Amino acid sequence: MKNPKEFLSERETASKFNKRLKKFIEEYCNHKDEHRKSLKLLDIGCGKNAELFFYKKDDDIYYGCDFFGSINTKIDNYTIIDLSEESLSSKYNNEKFDVIFCGEVIEHLFSPDELLDEIKELMREDSILILSTPNLGYYLNRIMLFFGISPFFLENSSEVKLGRKFKFLGQHNKTEGHIRLFTYGALRDLLKLKGFKIVKIKSVPVWDNVFDQIICLLSKSLSADNVFVLKKDK
Predict the structure, then answer these.
(1) 92: domain range?
(2) What CATH number should be reported for the domain holding residue 106?
(3) pLDDT in tens, 156-175
(4) Which of 35, 45, 72, 140 lies 20 to 30 Å (CA to CA) from residue 85?
(5) Residue 125: inside a domain, yes or no?
(6) pLDDT tens-digit map of 19-49
(7) Nearest to 39 by CA among 18, 56, 21, 17
(8) Cβ-Cβ contacts under 8 Å for 228 (sequence gap 6 or more)
(9) Can you give the C-alpha Rg of the chain in angstroms?
């Protein structure tokens, strides 16, 4: 039986630049424009290609961390960490960051609560956390559940996706290691519980189709994914 690190190392889920990462970059650039100083960036779960690294401003310092022994992109500050077993504070003792990226990470952890507590310790008063995770309340999931089909993002086997009935819905596709899933409301509740203030929320599609793009304009609770911009709540 494979341990969690071996399992996840075979499933690269942050490898391509997409509309979600575009929102990450936009919010980082907005923060940069507001502060006009050299910023320290931390990319939690940067992936093998560290896509966000290529969009940093020249005077900013980028730190990336993930559980891979090595990554494809050469960056100055890469840290190996297994967030299921190790703490951020043990890796970044006394460090403070201006912008922290945490995209599609918390759904892979047994305790996202612990990660959010540690992220707060790494933030200054004016730092921002840019976070995203799939939305279990996605409108297609509600339709699928009505017909007894297991929703997108939910994984009930450690090997393959089940309950989807049809191959085009992902039946028997390889799982991605999702453990905790949130509706839009549940994620807001968790962020409030952990002492974060919501600055902005932007809905983004996971799949590039016109219906998802329209839903993103109409409803955050029905969108496939949401990008949260957060600050520490004083």
Answers:
(1) 4-136+178-232
(2) 3.40.50.150
(3) 998 999 999 999 999 999 99
(4) 72
(5) yes
(6) 999 999 999 999 999 998 999 999 999 999 9
(7) 56
(8) 129, 130, 131, 132, 187, 191, 198, 200, 201
(9) 17
